[in-house]
Structure formats: C-alpha cells, structure tokens
TrEMBL record:
Residues 22-136, 150-265 form the VOC domain. It comes from Streptomyces paradoxus. PROSITE patterns: VOC. This is VOC domain-containing protein. It comes from the Bacteria. InterPro entries: Anthracycline_SecMetBiosynth, Glyas_Bleomycin-R_OHBP_Dase, Glyoxalase_6, VOC_core. Coiled coil: none annotated. Pfam families: Glyoxalase_6.
Length: 267
C-alpha cells in the first residue's frame, strides 16, 4: 500500500504531481453536505474550503492546510448511491475516457473542466464500479499521505478479478500481481513496481444493494478508537476491527451510508 507520485521538491514539502494511473483524489457526493462535513471533520480532523462548483456545491477537505479529499452536494432529484469515488491521474482525460469506452466501460460525466483546477471525467468499469479520472492543472489532487486522516489505499470489490483487472491495466497502464490462492481472488495493481490499488473478487458476497464498488481506506492512529468515534457520530460498523497483513482494519459507513475502511498501519 503506497502512493505513486512524481518527485517532490528537495525538502519534501512541494506537492508532487501524481504519476499517470496513480490514485490522486477521493470524492464523496452526498445530500446533506453540512452534516457530512461535521462527521468527517470530527472523525479525521478535516477542515474545509470551497472548491470548483461545476457539479454543484463542493468543498475540499484539508488536513493541516493540505488537501486530502472532496465533498459535494447531490442535486435533490439525483438518487445515486452515496459512495466514495477514487480518481486516477491522467495526462489526457479525453484520451483516457475514450479508452474506457473502447474497453467496455462507460463515461457518465464529462470530460469537463473544473475551473482552473483541472479536467475530469467520471466513469464506470464493465462491472459497473464507478471511478474518476483527473487531469491536473492548478489542483494536483491529494497533497499529503501516510498520516492519520489521509487516504491510504483503494480496493475494488467485484465479482471476479481477472477481467476487471485487465480493463484497468489497459486504461491506466498497471502491472498486475495476482495473489495465487485457491480460495482468495485478488490482484494487486502496480505502477513502477509499487502497489497502488487492489481488485478483490468476492463473487456473490457482494452487497446486493451496492454491486461492484471501490472502497477507500483512510489511515487512522487507532482503529478501535476510530470505530468508537464513527458510532458516536452516527455512523455504523459493517465489519469490526480485525488484523490483516497491512494492519488493523475496520469497515464502516457514514450517516448517509457511504462505505469506507479504517486502516491502522503496523507500527
């Protein structure tokens, strides 16, 4: 679980441009934007500032003044699943969108300009999982990682991994590293030899009301404490804290039902 980017400045403080194909942003569209800001602000310590309004009211979440995620308000007549959406970096969003279409995916929004921040498209893979494509201009995307309150990993839950991983490999240029196991269907997607996302085939274990979807993991200092905060703030626990090879993980949902995971890395 790493973050693929271009090189930063010599002191490490200069925001780095994300390498093409790297997860570069996560965004959540909700009905109650103010309440959602309150939830994530209390959970992760985020503060908020206005962002581009092309798709309606939108704010960027900041952690210690650095951008980590986006929150927007859905139009009242849009009854879409409330879900975190990962964005993957592209040097040419229009060309990437065409590749998505030619490989059996769909583009539902864009490509369109988000003021001077950049250019975006929102699409879905052949299984129906929604993701975004971001061509950076003034806004590079997430500018801090590896600390509590930041996106740490994105994982696609889908029916089976092989064909969907091939789609993402073709669109974004990933290398694949399948997990060879008789009872575990998983492919890690790599850029430059480093894992940047995962595809987990779970067959009929997918939630019937959700279908294939991406899950964003957010880093926390203490998973058990973070789960308590989620419940206290009106969210729910979907899978209790458990140990994994990467650390302690819990799957939760916010008060509007957006699913995400909490990751406490191994010390």
């Amino acid at each position: 679980m790493t973050d693929a980017r271009g090189s930063a400045g010599p002191n490490g403080d200069t925001p780095a441009r994300h390498a093409p194909g790297a997860p570069c942003w996560v965004s959540l569209m909700v009905h109650g934007l103010d309440a959602t800001e309150d939830f994530y602000g209390a959970l992760f310590g985020w503060e908020f500032q206005p962002g581009p309004q092309q798709l309606g009211p939108y704010v960027r979440a900041l952690l210690d003044g650095r951008e980590v995620a986006g929150l927007g308000r859905l139009p009242p007549d849009r009854h879409l699943p409330i879900a975190w959406t990962p964005y993957f970096a592209s040097e040419n969003v229009d060309l990437t969108a065409e590749t998505v279409r030619s490989r059996g995916g769909t583009i539902g929004v864009g490509p369109l300009d988000a003021a001077d921040a950049g250019r975006l498209a929102i699409g879905s893979d052949p299984s129906g999982a929604v993701f975004g494509i971001w061509q950076a201009a003034a806004h590079l995307g997430t500018t801090v990682s590896g600390v509590p309150g930041t996106p740490a990993w994105n994982e696609l839950l889908t029916f089976e991994s092989a064909s969907v991983a091939k789609f993402y490999r073709t669109v974004f240029g990933y290398e694949e590293e399948p997990v060879v196991s008789a009872d575990f269907d998983y492919v890690a997607l790599h850029l430059g030899g480093e894992p940047v996302a995962g595809v987990h085939g779970v067959g009929h274990a997918l939630p019937r009301d959700r279908g294939p979807h991406w899950v964003t993991y957010f880093q926390v200092a203490d998973a058990d404490d973070a789960v308590d905060h989620v419940v206290h703030l009106g969210g729910q626990v979907l899978r209790a804290v458990h140990d994994t090879a990467h650390g302690r993980v819990a799957h939760v949902a916010d008060p509007e039902g957006a699913r995400f995971a909490l990751l406490q890395r191994r010390g």
